[in-house]
Amino acid sequence: MDLDALRFGNFSQLGQAITDWEEMVKKLATLEKDAKDNLGGKAAKARWTGENAAVTRSFVEKTAAEFADAHTQARTVARILADTRDELVAFRDDLTEEISRAAKKNLTVRDTGDGSFTVTMNIHPDRAAKGTTLPEHSQSDMEGLRDRVQAILRQATRSDTTAAEALRLIVDQAERGFSGADYADRDSAAKALAAAEALAKTLKKDPSEVTATELNAVNATLAKYGKDPLFAEKLATSTTPDGLLTFYAGVADPYQGFGADPNRLKQAKLLQKNLGVALGTATLSDSAAMRSWEQKMVKLGPEELGTDHANNPRGFAVMSNLMRFGDYDDQFLNEYGEQLVAFDKERNVKNMSPWINNWNNGDLNFYSKNDRGRDPMTGFMEALGHNPGAATEFFSQPTGTGSGVDKESELNGNLKYLTKERIWLSDAYIMGGDNKVIAGHDSLGHALEAATTGYAYGADPMAAKDPMIPGNRDMRTAETAGVMEQVAFLYGSEDGPKMLHEQAQLADSLGKMGAAYIDDINYSLTGVGDHVKDEEAFPAKYADRANLGNQGAISFLSVLGQNETSHGVVTAAQHLYTLSVLDANPATTAANIDNAHDALTIGGEARGILDHSRVQQAAETFKGEAEEQNKSLGRSGDWVKLGAGVVVGGGIAAIPLPGSTAAALVVAPLAADTVGNAVNTFIGHEIDKGLEGSEKDPAQQAQLTSQDFYDKGVQDLGDAYSAYVEDNPEVSAIGDNKEWSEDIKGSYLGTGSGQNDYRGRAPHKE
Questions:
Q1: CB distance 471 to 649 below 8 Å
Q2: pLDDT digits over 244-269, tens only?
Q3: Using N-to-C axis directions, what is the helix angle for 241-252 and 262-283, rounded to 10°?
Q4: Could you give the CA distance from residue 303 to residue 557 in angstroms, rounded to a whole number?
Q5: Residue 99 Cα to chain centre, angstroms
Q6: Can you tell me the distance from the alpha carbon of 352 to that of 417, in angstroms, rounded to the nearest whole number?
Q7: Do the Cβ atoms of 620 and 763 come closer than 8 Å?
Q8: Which of 105, 163, 206, 362 sits CB 3.0–4.6 Å from 137 for a disulfide?
Q9: Helix crossing, 550-560 with 590-621: angle to 10°?
Q10: pTM of the predicted model as reported, rounded to 2 decimal places
């Protein structure tokens, strides 16, 4: 900053700009509240149908969010401007004070341009009036004045330039619309930028020369600022994609002498997560600099890094392990994934994996004994699992295929390749891992969960700001349904039983996907073939619901029923959904009573398919081992325990799996936004009674013959019917007239089991 610019600076125009911005902040705060409460609030509560659900609702919600971002950006700009103005005024006052004090020693400073100045005598003795006595000064006085003025100008320059940089970055964060970057003042933004610059210098070092102390400082900085948008972008653009990947590969490489130091390994593990989060945050910026950085990272994917560390990995191998953590830009993930799949397809040869082989010891993942991180597809699937929008796009149904899927040509190429064609291998550690586990299958399941449900895999339902909270809203869309239709077609196909058996780690995810679409599955089971569907009893909860087709629903359920885990998950969701339909249709009208009847019979059919499939598979798996077969059925018959801890609200049920964390949560739709006695009974005292009985007689719970298993299924359906009759006494006579009991039992034992016998998939045989 030039001396005269600060000394004679007139900040009145800046002050007026700040006033204008502060007024704008007030107006935008009002608009944000209106958009949130009126526009967004009404949109969330409204029942959208047709094109309005697919297009208008999304537009309204995005518009409401833009008002919030606009308010945040205006507030941040106003704060930075005001803070910078106050700082510059203070520096101007300091400069004026220094010049005033210097005059008492006949010294002053003169601007020489380009930020430079000179210290001179205020009045030269030769030009002083006759008889005038001038104050004396020493060389140290001149040097002291120079240093103090220089320090003031340096601080003023820093204040001005960091404010300008922060404002430019904030504006560039969003190519269209507004940035959500929020800073209290110029100093906080400047600190984030300075921290990024300092960290970038460390990340440019040879990782083998970075000390444990330095690595600890790196993690501390990343942990503090990793989700700060300005810090993240500055860090990424102050380094290079290959430099960042080489640094992490070197730190993670246990063969560089770091393995002997457990603290070093601990820091390497933290670096994987912290750096991944920061890079994800950086990709959310729409600036030209970040778009260029992302393109370079994608291009680097197939290339070897040219390093002695971690077996000289390719860019894909390193970046995929970092992106396991963080919120990444959807477009970046899809461009990265398309390049990864294309590269991987060319090398998909048995016993010739470019990733998992005897000579590749580049272990780059610290978060699972069964996943060394050598296969980049696994890490990328985890990234999709945490970024639902990107996952849905990556597995999207090809355009022009219409509703439903009935042939392989209508499948997304990425989905078909990863589920049917790719050779997945175990990547377990030799010491402590299980080589029977294929981590990639588990991660593929996580990606498909996100793609079909709209929820990030592992989202914590108890986190206050997490969209997973029941009561937020159903996250399904026509696009997520398009992915679900493909999944149901693939795993409900003739190859489905074999695929599920060979991809056992996918069973829980497939169960969750089936649970998430249990209403659409029920709807698909109604009618005659694919005609005369029951919209009244099973109304769509979102636009362009998943169309599995009657046969498709039967086939998919019959495959899910073969596995203990997927059977239990879908059965729990099915039972809850049936109860919710009963709650949504009190016996106040003939139409409601018909809907309740249909819910019980279709629910019986779905349960019959699941249970019959489970019995058949247990018999096939444990041939001649009656005790093991009975134990397997006993575990499947114990699905009712899944009801313990269920949280409902806003038309969503969150069902925890046994011993579950947030990642094991099952999200299933309910028929209505509020629940009644039937659902509350299932998640309340009936569960407590069931658990109490289990504790009293664990042996009985451990074994269950096929006959008892079916009897239990009938009893569960009977309990549901009884719950409806108890809540609606007037139904009793009508129910008897319609022979509801026989209808329900027949749908379970006859229609359900019968259809599975003749139209469902046969059990998998070794």
A1: yes
A2: 999 999 999 866 544 557 788 889 99
A3: 160
A4: 43
A5: 58
A6: 17
A7: yes
A8: 105
A9: 50
A10: 0.83
